[in-house]
């Protein structure tokens, strides 16, 4: 819980400015040296989780009776760009998911093709860094199936997702390593609760990486790229929130 409070404090600090930080926790989070200490446990968290659990161990799954009556949306509710608005208007008929980077066979996959791929349905709990959670049913193909079809090159170490929503004029982005990319519950979801994914929840396709916190589950995915390093992605930490608010890159739960 302390890590969740710290992250919320950092978001607030980034929004209202360091001069408005009021609590002792916020003052600590605003100190560069303190922030370094607070987040240096990320590698240990990842190492311990990977060492103590099977790499294919599943996140808990639930029954239909346990699904939340409302699955709230969070973050961007509509990218609102001219390009995205046009895609919504024609029901994503022109959508093409690009799969590239360090692959042997770059792909351009339409939404009907994605929906026709063998898919996985899973009822899981979404845990948000802000402290709320909800249980919902997600359906879509495994990310690993697309990466296998594209043919990852030996130098590939990370998978980067570029999204339709803009922050500061640049596309939102996130990344995972190959362990999570090929995890059996990591899917590109096109349906939520047996309904086609709506705009607020990330249509036409969003990432579900069930063993990590919600901010890793990128919405509005437009492109997927295999890379050897995160050094050239944004400011080098692998994701928008990681780069701008010092969120952990590895948000394992």
Walkthrough of the structure:
- With 253 residues, the chain is α+β, with helices and mostly antiparallel strands.
- It contains nine helices and eleven strands.
- The protein has helices at residues 2-16, 24-30, 32-39, 42-52, 82-89, 111-116, 143-150, 178-181, 240-245, and strands at 96-101, 107-110, 120-127, 133-140, 158-167, 170-177, 187-189, 191-192, 195-196, 206-208, 221-227.
- Strands 2-1-11-5-6 form a five-stranded mixed sheet.
- Helix 1 crosses helix 2.
- Mean pLDDT is 85; it is low at 1-30 and 37-42.
Summary of the model, kept short:
With 253 residues, the chain is α+β, with helices and mostly antiparallel strands.
What composes the largest sheet? 5 strands, mixed
What is the number of beta strands? 11
Termini gap: 12 Å
Strand order of the largest sheet: 2-1-11-5-6
Overall pLDDT, averaged? Answer: 85
What would you call the structural class? alpha+beta
Tell me the series of helices and strands, N- to C-terminal.
HHHHHEEHEEHEEHEEEEEH
Beta-strand portion reads 15-25%
Q: Residue share in helices?
A: 25-40%
- Count of alpha/pi helices: 9
**What integer value in Å does the Rg equal?**
18 Å
Can you tell me the overall shape?
A: globular
- The residue ranges in which pLDDT falls below 50 over 5 or more consecutive positions are 1-30, 37-42
């Amino acid at each position: 819980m302390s890590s969740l409070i710290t992250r919320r404090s950092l978001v607030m600090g980034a929004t209202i400015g360091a001069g408005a930080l009021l609590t002792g926790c916020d003052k600590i989070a605003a100190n560069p040296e303190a922030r370094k200490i607070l987040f240096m446990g990320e590698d240990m968290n990842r190492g311990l989780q990977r060492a103590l659990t099977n790499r294919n161990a599943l996140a808990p799954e639930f029954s239909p009776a346990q699904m939340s009556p409302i699955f709230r949306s969070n973050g961007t509710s509509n990218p609102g760009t001219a390009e995205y608005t046009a895609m919504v208007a024609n029901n994503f008929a022109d959508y093409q998911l690009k799969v590239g980077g360090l692959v042997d066979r770059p792909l351009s996959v339409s939404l009907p093709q994605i929906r026709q791929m063998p898919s996985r349905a899973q009822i899981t709990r979404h845990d948000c860094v802000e402290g709320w959670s909800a249980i919902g049913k997600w359906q879509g193909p495994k990310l690993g199936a697309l990466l296998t079809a594209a043919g990852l090159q030996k130098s590939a170490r990370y998978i980067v997702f570029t999204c339709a929503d803009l922050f500061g004029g640049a596309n939102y982005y996130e990344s995972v390593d190959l362990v999570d990319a090929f995890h059996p519950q990591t899917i590109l979801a096109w349906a939520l609760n047996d309904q086609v994914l709506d705009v607020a929840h990330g249509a036409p396709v969003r990432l579900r990486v069930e063993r990590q916190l919600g901010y890793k589950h990128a919405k509005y995915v437009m492109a997927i790229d295999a890379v050897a390093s995160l050094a050239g992605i944004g400011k080098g930490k692998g994701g928008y929130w990681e780069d701008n608010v010092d969120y952990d890159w590895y948000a394992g739960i």
